[in-house]
Amino acid sequence: MAKKESFLETLIKAPWWVSAILLVAGNVIIRIAVPAWYSGARTPGLLGPAIQSAAPTVANLFSLAMVAAIIFSLVREKFPQRETTPKNELPYKSREVLFTPAELNFLNTLEPSLKEDFKVYGKVRVADIIEPRNGLEGKAYWSALNRVSSKHVDFVICNARSLAIEMVIELDDRSHERRDRIDRDDFLDAALEAAHVPFVRFAAKRAYTLRELQAKLGGFVVAAQEPVAGTAMEVAEPKPVIAKPAPVNDGESCAACGSDMKLREKKSGDEAGKKFWVCTRYPECRGVVPYVEAKWF
Fold first, then answer.
1. How many independent structural domains does the chain possess?
2. N or C: which end of the chain has fewer CB within 10 A?
3. Per-residue pLDDT for 49 more than 60?
């Protein structure tokens, strides 16, 4: 529950002229109106002289408080402080996973296939890969920067030692068939080409062969082997992705502790009905994995 502000705190946060108006009005009331009322013919008695004698002191104290409020209000307006919001009121929630099932499947295939001289990184900002060229100033510079600042690419292959950018990889699923994604992809391809950054695109699918990787990535991956019995050899048995099909029974393994996982469903809140896998050792182990219907591209 928020703390209730005092009258003085409210005055300090209000514009300075509010305190100035109260200063003038308060002095008129305390020094003139109230003493005149109690000392006039309407209210005869002993109270009138007492109020008349106390009025200057009360008015002076009130004036000091109002002057202080004016000063603090002016200082607050001159040097504003950043407003803070309690953590439980910030409008955010966890996205739970970094990669989509298709992206994770591709990463699990690419990573063990790279030569030891290279590393792969995912979800990299375009602004960390390219930047406006030298000579751009003012509006042209900021316009060029803003066009890439909110975008990211799926994967970047870097030199293992220097982390120099070697190749950008984009994984295209069905969402890239939308008009807005086509425009975005066309711009990104043109921007990377203008910056002389090599890039390739892979269609998202369930499995990839070593020959497919080498055909587009060349010397970044290990040499492809000859096909066995007329079938191209896969790089490796694809590792389990986070997306899980509807279970026949419980017993999934927790990645954190190795215990069984159980399927649970959220009963209330904004995400009521959402399913997830939770470790059977909860709350000792807080291993949680989102449940996603199996979907291959």
1. 3
2. N
3. yes
DSSP symbols for 162-210: T--EEEEEEEE-GGGGSHHHHHHHHHHHHHHHHTT--EEEEE--S--BH
Question: What are the backbone angles phi and psi of residue 185, rounded to the nearest 5°?
Answer: -65, -40
The predicted-structure confidence for 157-193, as pLDDT tens digits, reads as follows 999 999 999 999 999 988 888 888 899 999 999 999 9
Q: Tokens standing for 55? A: 């009025």
Rounded Cα gap, residues 68 and 60, in angstroms = 12
Question: Contacts for 121-127 with beta carbons within 8 Å, 24 or more apart?
Answer: 121/155, 121/156, 121/158, 122/98, 122/154, 122/155, 122/156, 123/98, 123/99, 123/152, 123/154, 124/152, 124/153, 124/155, 124/156, 125/149, 125/151, 125/152, 126/151, 126/152, 126/153, 126/188, 126/191, 127/151
How far is Cα 45 from Cα 43, in angstroms, rounded to an integer? Answer: 7
* CB under 8 A, 24+ apart: contacts of 90-96: 96/288, 96/290
Q: What is the largest CA-CA distance in the chain?
A: 120
End-to-end CA distance of the chain: 49
Q: Is residue 227 part of a domain?
A: no
Query: Does residue 115 sit in the same domain as residue 214?
Result: yes
Q: How confident is the model at residue 227 (pLDDT cuts 50, 70, 90)?
A: very low
Q: Please tell me the chain's helix, strand, coil percentages from 3-state DSSP, rounded to the nearest 5.
A: 40, 15, 40
Fill in the amino acid letter for 236: A
- Which letter does DSSP use for residue 127 in this model? G
pLDDT in tens, 67-86: 877 787 777 777 766 555 56
**Same domain for 265 and 169:** no
Separation of alpha carbons 223 and 231, rounded Å: 16
Question: Looking at the structure, do residues 108 and 36 belong to the same domain, yes or no?
Answer: no
Q: What percent of the chain has pLDDT over 90?
A: 26
